[in-house]
């Protein structure tokens, strides 16, 4: 039973996850008719343009709106790009596909595929633990981003949130703050400030548009202004920066810089202070080792394929799942097949 299951799933060199004969998640394969886009982080968007030309693309309503905001304006007019609500099943070829939320970022989905021949396949996508409901499958492709027992945080994310909130409010009393982070973390940080700080908040057009999508999906309203066209920043305020965005010219030595980073330097301490005006906060939207094991236990698959294309812990995680949970687990291998790639 286990080996035929393993033949049905595959992780490509760029992180595309194949689930059965019809479905590819977060990547492109010529022989798959449908691409499921689990969420909008860049490492899951490879070959999206190719998929637009050749495949059906489905995603959750939140990811749909974020993709329309981030990508070309033609997206909402394409017949092959559709939003599928969480929990609603949709059929392509011989596959029935269902998406469930993962608590990772807005719109992020787990993917469940039931093939007509009875195989039940799943992909966790990027996920945070705990979550409300998990997919049901016999073979699970598992995100392994923080899948090492060596990187177990000894604090909870709600403690990180309150430390960040405290730090932001304290530093904003003395001067301007530049806060840098990935999509998802930045929006979570904004919610910590809503109703707490009375300073103006500035962001790029893209970040502002993106936050409007978050608001439309239930995040609290926050006034955001475009970057002032000046080289001298007007007094106090918070400036939001995307992770790889070039900082505007007005960011000078008066600014406190805070970076939201998944990287853990001290498992006991989420806040790292480089100087009075330079901090890193270990905010995360990924489950880590203990949470990943709890997720696998909840899904209860017969076989786990750990995703070896992201994070670098797939081999270790597969071994730990086999030993600790007694569920057969193997890391994905990069079998270069001509079907992969654009
Ligand atoms: Zn992600
Ligand atoms: Zn990822």
UniProtKB/TrEMBL annotation:
InterPro entries: Metallo-B-lactamas, RibonucZ/Hydroxyglut_hydro. Keywords: Exonuclease, Hydrolase, Nuclease. One of its GO terms (biological process) is interstrand cross-link repair. The keyword Nuclease applies. Residues 36-150 form the Metallo-beta-lactamase domain. Pfam families: Lactamase_B_2. Gene3D superfamilies: Ribonuclease Z/Hydroxyacylglutathione hydrolase-like. GO terms for molecular function: 5'-3' DNA exonuclease activity; damaged DNA binding. Signal peptide: none annotated. SUPFAM superfamilies: Metallo-hydrolase/oxidoreductase (SSF56281). PANTHER family: DNA CROSS-LINK REPAIR PROTEIN PSO2/SNM1-RELATED, PROTEIN ARTEMIS. This is Metallo-beta-lactamase domain-containing protein. It comes from Ramlibacter rhizophilus. The lineage of its organism: Bacteria, Pseudomonadati, Pseudomonadota, Betaproteobacteria, Burkholderiales.
């Amino acid at each position: 039973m286990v080996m035929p299951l393993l033949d049905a799933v595959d992780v490509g060199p760029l992180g595309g996850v194949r689930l059965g004969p019809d479905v590819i998640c977060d990547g492109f394969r010529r022989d798959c008719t449908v691409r499921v886009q689990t969420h909008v982080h860049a490492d899951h968007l490879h070959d999206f343009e190719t998929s637009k030309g050749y495949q059906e693309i489905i995603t959750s309503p939140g990811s749909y709106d974020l993709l329309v905001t981030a990508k070309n304006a033609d997206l909402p007019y394409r017949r092959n790009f559709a939003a599928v609500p969480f929990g609603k099943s949709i059929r392509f070829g011989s596959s029935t596909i269902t998406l469930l939320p993962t608590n990772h970022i807005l719109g992020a989905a787990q993917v469940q595929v039931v093939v007509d021949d009875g195989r039940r396949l799943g992909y966790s996508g990027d996920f945070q633990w705990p979550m409300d409901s998990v997919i049901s499958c016999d073979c699970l492709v598992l995100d392994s981003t923080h899948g090492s027992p060596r990187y177990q945080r000894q604090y909870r994310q709600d403690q990180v949130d309150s430390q960040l909130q405290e730090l932001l409010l304290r530093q904003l009393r003395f001067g301007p703050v530049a806060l840098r982070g990935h999509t998802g973390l930045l929006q979570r940080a904004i919610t910590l400030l809503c109703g707490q700080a009375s300073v103006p908040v500035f962001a790029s057009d893209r970040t502002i548009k993106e936050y409007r999508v978050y608001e439309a999906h239930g995040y609290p309203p926050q006034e955001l202004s475009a970057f002032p066209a000046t080289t001298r920043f007007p007094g106090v305020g918070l400036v939001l920066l995307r992770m790889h965005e070039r900082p505007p010219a007005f960011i000078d030595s008066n600014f406190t810089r805070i970076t939201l980073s998944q990287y853990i330097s001290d498992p006991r301490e989420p806040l790292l202070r480089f100087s009075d005006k330079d901090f890193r906060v270990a905010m995360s939207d990924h489950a880590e080792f203990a949470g990943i094991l709890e997720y696998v236990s909840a899904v209860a698959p017969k076989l786990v394929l750990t995703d070896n294309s992201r994070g670098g812990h797939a081999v270790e995680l597969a071994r730990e799942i086999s030993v600790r949970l007694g569920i057969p687990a193997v890391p994905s291998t990069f079998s270069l097949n001509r079907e992969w790639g654009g």
